[in-house]
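User: My collaborator sent over this chain with a note saying "see what the structure looks like." That's all I know about it. Can you take a look?
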Amino acid sequence: MRCCIDLIKFLLFIANFLCFLGFAGLLAGTVYVLLNGENTFIGQNIEPSLSSADPTNATYFSFIIIFLVIFSFFALFTCLGCCGAAYKSGCMLGSFIIILFVLFGGSVGAVVFLHTQFGWQAVLQVLIQEMSRNLPTFRKENVLTYKFWNWIQPTFSCCGVEEVNGWKIWSTSDGLQTNWKVPEACCKEGEKDCMYEPSSETAYLEGCAPQIVLYVQVLFYGIPVIMFVSLVFAFVVSSSVSSSERRRKATNDHAPPYRAHSQYSIGADDDFQHHHSYPTAPSHSDNLPYNPHYEQEMVAALPTGYHHNNSGGAGIYSAGHIGNYPTGTVPPPHAHVPLLHQAPPSYNEVVYRK
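Assistant: Without extra context I'll predict from the sequence alone. Here is the result:
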């Protein structure tokens, strides 16, 4: 299960990252067109003006403003999904899910509306309607329209809009030269004079709408499907992140105080509970008290016949029975006088006095 969640998170990250790069590139291209329009496919400089004195410039500038807003929005939107999946941020994923849900609802509503208005061939009907409305504006002054038709007709081997006798719609265009019935883009390869009398041997006579409708349908229906899959993946990743946060919070709430705010003491409670070994006392030779006059005072304090053993053997005293040495609070009867400068007894001395 964990492997599947990681795979879904990786796919969500990769998809949003690629989309972010695409929208960022489109945004940069739009800015470049705005600043250097004469060096692009538009072929003219675009002034930041919506004045009706120059309707062509106003149209181009309006489209550029719209594209800047759209590409900026989608770049930020896909950045939310990418960063939310990468950093497991519940806030980013939540924002991404809300925006994606709104977009998904809008796309589904558009599909339902078009099929309600135009039937089951809604995409083809709308495509024919819009292409028929755009074709009469074919002229060199309308750079985008002029280049669009000059590209699509030779690319898809078509001419005009509708399937049957689609080329006849060119009679409605005032952008053709005198006595031309179709543009030069409708001619087959090697036929240079088909514009005057097009025929099936010299020109493409079928319309372009049936040729490109499949690509438009894939785009039109594919976008809602991709949104739905992304929405499901985002829900899965967000649920996984929320579950992890709840488990981490529950663990911190039930943890001991020294573990509540630090991760460095993880496992320390096990060591304190299961290991009870204590260090042993140092040997007599390593635990001598520091007193320069210690030896002389011990000799003077011991009864006759006793002497201190510095060899570190079994005991401190090498002669007599250890029980003969007085213990307790009563000092030796005749020699020992407690001095404040004397060192306390060592560990071995205390043990052997017992």
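A starting point for your reply to your collaborator: The radius of gyration is 46 Å.
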